[in-house]
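Let's sit down with a protein and look at its sequence and fold side by side. Please make up or recall a protein chain and show it to me in full. Label the sequence line and the structure token line clearly, so we can match residues to local backbone shapes. Go ahead whenever you are ready, and we will take it from there.
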Amino acid sequence: MALPSTTSQHLVPATSSSPPSTTRSRTQLPQARSPAVLVSELADRWLIAGLTTSRRRLDGVARVSVPHPYAVGLTGPGYLWGNRLHGIRKDDVLRRIGHAHAALAHRIADTHQMSEEARLALLRAFGVMLPEHPEAC
């Protein structure tokens, strides 16, 4: 499934009241507040890249760091939660804490599973120079 066009206004860290990945229902989960990057807007949802302060996953694998974390509104080092975008309801976005930059967009595009079309749209939204032939990216 291709993502809708992404604009730079959409890629901002925001505090979400839902954890980035879970299979349990909302009523079974505590309302954790986690920062996330709003990557793409759908009709009633946001596709997000979750953020965390944990350097490693539970299985010991290192997470990918957020470049220039203070510039995007984090109060310390941050890491991308995983490599997949997750959907959350729009009303789960509590507040915006900052604005993303091209380096973060590039890090998400390089590490998250998404269509090539969505990846290129994300990078173009931040003015990242792309070669004439996208398959070279």
Remarks:
- The two ends are 20 Å apart (CA to CA).
